[in-house]
Design a protein that fits this description.
This protein is an alpha+beta fold. The chain has helices spanning 2-41, 91-105, 143-147, 174-180, 224-231, 265-268, 324-330, 357-362, 407-413, 456-486; strands at 52-59, 62-69, 75-78, 82-85, 112-117, 120-127, 133-138, 155-163, 169-172, 194-199, 202-208, 214-218, 244-248, 258-262, 278-281, 290-295, 312-317, 344-348, 351-355, 377-380, 386-391, 397-400, 427-430, 436-437, 448-451.
C-alpha cells in the first residue's frame, strides 16, 4: 500500500512539474513568435549572429525543411546549392537572395525562408553612468532605450559614442532624435557594441512664458538666445521679457546662489549661461488685476457629510471688462450647499454692494454690466446654521445645526460635560431671539447651550486655599490685638 501511495505521489508531482514546464515553454514560444513577427514586419531588421531561420521547399517530390543558425562568421549554407555572406544584410535582402537561389535550382518548389527566432546579444554601457554594465538587447533595440536608467544627473545625451566590434566610432545626439525625429541619431545596436556616455558640458533650465519649458543640455557656444529660440521653441504671445529672472547656483560669491534680473537686451546679447542656471520668463498674465473671493467657497464635506465651519480667501486674476455674471458662471465650482449665494456682496473701496449670485448662476436670461474692479472682495456668507455650546464642556465651540436634535446631541459633539464642574447635567439654553428653551425641546438654529459650572466641590476646591489664607490672616490679626490690649 505504501509503495502504491509513493508511486501515485511521484506521478502527481511529475505531472505538475511537466505541466509547469509546458506552460513555461509555451510562454517562451509565444514571446519568441511575437518578437519574430516584429522583426519580419520591420524592413530595417538586420541579419544578426544568433538568428535562427527556417528554409522549406520541395525538391522534385521530396519536401525539404531545416533550420539555419547564423553564427559569428555570418556565412550560411543554402541547402547544397550555395553559401551566402549575410554580413550587413537586412532580413528582406537575405530572404530574396535565398529564395532566388532555390527557385533557380528547383522551379515550382514553393520555397519559403522565414525568421523564426531573432537573436539577442549584449552591449556594454560605460562612461558617465551609474555603473558600467552589460545590457541584454536585440537587433531592433535603439540607443535611447538601452541607456535609459543608466544615466546620472551629469550624463550627456548630446555626445554619445558607439564603438563597433571593428573599432569604428560614431557620435550621436539624442536631442535631435527625440525633438526632430532624426532616427539616424538613435541607431539600432549591434552585437559587441560599446556605448560610451560623455559628461554634459552644461545643463540649464528654462520656465515660464516659453513654448517648451524644461531642462536642456547646451553645446559649446550656445547661450540664452539659443536656449529660448531653439530649445524652448520661442516665447509665448504673453511673454514679458522686461522682467526676466536668472537663478544662478554656481560661480557667484554667495554659496546659496544668486538671483539676477535681466532686461530684454540680454536676449540679443546672447547672455552667457553656466551649469545649473534657471531662467524664468514671466507672463503678462501675472500683471492682470486681481479680485478676492472669500467666505463659504471651496468648503469640502467632512467624513460625516456635514459642512465644516471654514472660510477661505482665494485670489483670482481677471481681464478688464469681465462682469460678475460671467465671472461667477465660469467659477461655479466655488460654491457649495453652504454658500449663501442670495446674500452675497462686494466690498469695493470700503463700500458694500449687494450681489445676488444665485440669480447669476441659475437664471439663464440674467444679464449684468456690473464689472469686476481691481481689489474687489466678493464675499459669500455661510448658509449653514450653527449652534454654540459653551461652559463646562470638554470642547466648547460652534457646531453645525442638525434638525430635530435636543441639547444632549450638541453637548456630545462638544465632548460631553466636564463632570468635575457640572452637576446634574445643568444647562441654560437660549434661542436666537433670547428666549429660554427647556431641555426637552428641539434645539433651533443659532441657539446657545451653556453648560453650567455648578459643582459645590469644584468651587470649594477652587476657593478653599484663598479662604484658608484669609482666615489665617484674620486669626493672626486677632491674636496680635489681644496681646496688645493685655499690655
Amino acid at each position: 500500500m505504501k509503495k502504491i501511495l509513493k508511486v501515485v505521489l511521484f506521478l502527481l508531482i511529475g505531472s505538475s512539474l511537466f505541466a509547469q514546464t509546458v506552460e513555461e515553454d509555451v510562454s517562451v514560444k509565444e514571446i519568441s513568435t511575437r518578437t519574430a513577427q516584429v522583426a519580419i514586419s520591420n524592413p530595417d531588421y538586420m541579419v544578426t549572429s544568433g538568428d535562427i531561420y527556417n528554409l522549406a521547399f520541395v525538391a522534385g517530390t521530396t519536401p525539404v525543411s531545416y533550420s539555419i543558425l547564423v553564427d559569428s562568421s555570418y556565412k550560411i549554407k543554402v541547402a547544397n546549392l550555395a553559401t551566402l555572406d549575410a554580413t550587413g544584410k537586412s532580413y528582406i535582402t537575405l530572404k530574396r537572395q535565398v529564395e532566388e537561389i532555390v527557385s533557380k535550382n528547383y522551379p515550382m518548389s514553393a520555397v519559403q525562408f522565414v525568421l523564426t527566432q531573432p537573436s539577442s546579444f549584449t552591449v556594454v554601457v560605460k562612461g558617465e553612468v551609474k555603473s558600467t554594465q552589460e545590457v541584454n538587447v536585440w537587433a531592433l533595440s535603439r540607443l535611447s532605450s538601452v541607456i535609459k536608467g543608466c544615466e546620472t544627473a551629469y550624463s550627456s545625451t548630446r555626445d554619445i559614442t558607439v564603438i563597433s566590434t571593428t573599432g569604428k566610432k560614431k557620435s550621436y545626439d539624442l536631442f535631435k532624435a527625440t525633438r526632430f525625429g532624426d532616427l539616424s541619431q538613435d541607431p539600432y545596436l549591434r552585437p559587441g557594441d560599446i556605448i560610451e556616455i560623455k559628461r554634459a558640458d552644461r545643463k540649464v533650465s528654462i520656465g515660464g512664458a516659453v513654448e517648451r519649458p524644461g531642462t536642456y543640455e547646451l553645446l559649446k557656444g550656445e547661450n540664452l538666445k539659443t536656449l529660448v529660440s531653439y530649445y524652448a521653441n520661442g516665447l509665448t504671445v504673453q511673454a514679458d521679457t522686461t522682467r526676466m529672472e536668472l537663478s544662478r547656483r554656481v560661480g557667484t560669491e554667495f554659496k546659496t546662489g544668486q538671483k539676477i534680473y535681466l532686461d530684454k537686451n540680454v536676449m540679443d546679447e546672447d547672455f552667457e549661461l553656466v551649469y545649473y542656471d534657471y531662467v524664468t520668463i514671466p507672463s503678462y498674465e501675472s500683471l492682470k488685476p486681481v479680485v478676492f473671493v472669500e467666505g463659504a467657497v471651496n468648503v469640502s464635506a467632512g467624513d460625516s457629510g456635514t459642512q465644516q465651519d471654514a472660510s477661505n480667501r482665494i485670489p483670482y486674476r481677471f481681464e478688464v471688462g469681465t462682469n460678475y455674471a460671467q465671472f461667477v458662471r465660469s467659477n461655479i465650482g466655488l460654491f457649495s450647499a453652504v454658500s449663501d449665494t442670495e446674500n452675497a456682496y462686494v466690498i469695493r473701496k470700503g463700500e458694500i454692494i449687494p450681489l445676488n449670485v444665485s440669480e447669476m448662476l441659475y437664471n439663464a436670461n440674467f444679464y449684468s454690466d456690473f464689472e469686476l474692479e481691481e481689489n474687489d472682495i466678493l464675499r459669500i456668507p455661510f448658509k449653514q446654521l450653527f449652534v454654540v455650546v459653551s461652559g463646562a464642556v470638554n470642547q466648547p465651540g460652534k457646531y453645525p445645526y442638525i434638525p430635530d436634535r435636543t441639547y444632549d446631541y450638541y453637548v456630545n459633539l462638544a465632548g460631553g460635560f466636564v463632570k468635575e464642574r457640572n452637576r446634574g447635567d445643568a444647562v441654560k439654553i437660549i434661542d436666537i431671539n433670547g428666549e429660554k428653551v427647556t431641555k426637552s425641546e428641539y434645539i433651533t438654529p443659532e441657539s446657545i447651550i451653556d453648560a453650567k459650572s455648578n459643582s459645590f466641590l469644584y468651587f470649594f476646591n477652587q476657593y478653599a486655599p484663598i479662604l484658608t489664607t484669609l482666615l489665617s490672616v484674620v486669626g493672626t490679626t486677632l491674636s496680635v490685638l489681644a496681646v496688645t490690649q493685655a499690655k
